[in-house]
Amino acid sequence: xxxxxxxxxxxxxxxxxxxxxxxxxxxxxxxxxxxxxxxxxxxxxxxxxxxxxxxxxxxxxxxxxxxxxxxxxx
Length: 74
What we know:
0% of the residues lie in helices and 31% in strands. It is mainly beta. Strands 3, 4, 5 and 6 form a four-stranded antiparallel β-sheet that branches. A two-stranded antiparallel ribbon has the order 1-2.
């Protein structure tokens, strides 16, 4: 699983193996650049990207695979 913000990508590693339904949460702080992946209340390793970056109004949010190639990563 990964996170794109402002044309920068990071992998968010986690050693969770799903056997059933799972709850996923991704957090990112513009102030610190810290990003975390939480799965079923367990946090993975924190990564950093785009400290101080501001997401512009009317930005694009894609959850799942980029099926139409919008980001050029299909």
